[in-house]
Amino acid sequence: MNELVTKEIDGYLANSSMIRKMFEAGIELRKKYGAENVYDFSLGNPDVPPPSAVKAALKEIAEHADEPFAIGYMPNAGYPATREALAKKVSEEQATQVPAANIVVTCGAAGAINVLFRAVLSDGDEVICPSPYFVEYGFYAGNFGGKLVPVPTKLPDFTLDIAAIDAAITPKTRAVIVNSPNNPTGQIYSREELAALAEVLKKHSEKNGRAIYLVSDEPYRALNFDGVEIPSVFSVYPAAVVIGSFSKTLSLAGERIGYVAVNPALEGAEKLMAALILTNRILGFVNAPAIAQKVLQTALDSQVDIDIYRKRRALMADVLTNAGVEFMMPKGAFYFFAKSPVEDERIFVEALLNEHVLAVPGRGFGLPGYIRLAFCVEDSTIINSRDAFKRAVDSLAK
């Protein structure tokens, strides 16, 4: 009578206790000391306002909202006009002519990954990812009988360890998923790294008799602070799939709008596309939100003011440097993955919590000994946390 959920989900709930603890601690600290005295770097929730083109698009949509089918059913892959607009943008980013037929509009990047994994994973299949990694990948693979296989990156700069990935591939390997710019490290993988990875995947695909997909998860593509190249995976590997969203690019996180794009060079791409359109429907997404799709049709070439995040990156770097915390300067996204001054980063997280600073332990992203700090917060939060970080580090030194 007490078995209300599966053992698998019960285990997930038990392991999420630290996240719950941080969330609950933040609530209590704000009640006790006031929100202005709590420095919360735990959540990657983009706070920069959407560009003006989004507001203009919403007004235009509202003007026509009283027309028949204005926000009605549509093809499961999305509005044709939205797919056309996305195809043009993806073609530019991937330096490859991508037809609209190779785009499925999805409920965010998370929806896109689940749609893809439902289409290509069988029980026991493995998905390799560089570590540290976005924690939800393991759940997404597990949803369809797959298993996530993390492979550590090279320290201290979190670049890909191609030899280690090569060694981790087995006949069960179905995909390798890379996230660049990366959450949580902010690293951007180079063309040389991705080309070397592609050669490894070609070798094993031929050996195993089935394609190993290279999945490039790119929701942070627009947040590229130093203007370095974000290479096209379509140009280096035929069995490549690109995942994108506009949660960060347009600050539309709550609208859940993204896409999956399949390399036209993939042999049998038409069959994979048919499968993705089917899984988008049978998983219950049915189609991506209509209003968000219409926004993309006119606001797709806009983006948030990246200089706001660039300034905050500099402020956060100054705070960490002042405290004596080691870090790699993130090239993209809006996170620092900083090294803990003590081996067990949970002790550092507790010391920060004592100073009203909220951070996330690195082990949640597959790499103990580090903490993740999201700098998508007000400038004042970062500036005012300076002394708190220093006190936390000094307390551990004592």
Question: Briefly, what is this?
Answer:
The chain is α/β, with parallel strands linked by helices and 398 residues long. The chain has helices at 7-15, 17-33, 52-63, 80-94, 108-120, 136-142, 162-168, 191-208, 269-282, 290-299, 306-323, 345-354, 379-384, 386-397; strands spanning 39-40, 103-106, 126-131, 147-152, 173-179, 213-217, 240-245, 258-262, 335-339, 357-358, 360-361, 370-374.
Secondary-structure map with pairings?
Elements: H1 7-15, H2 17-33, E1 39-40, H3 52-63, H4 80-94, E2 103-106, H5 108-120, E3 126-131, H6 136-142, E4 147-152, H7 162-168, E5 173-179, H8 191-208, E6 213-217, E7 240-245, E8 258-262, H9 269-282, H10 290-299, H11 306-323, E9 335-339, H12 345-354, E10 357-358, E11 360-361, E12 370-374, H13 379-384, H14 386-397
Parallel strand pairs: 1-10, 3-4, 3-5, 5-6, 6-7
Antiparallel strand pairs: 2-8, 7-8, 9-12, 11-12
Helix pairs in contact: 3-10, 4-10, 5-9, 11-14, 12-14
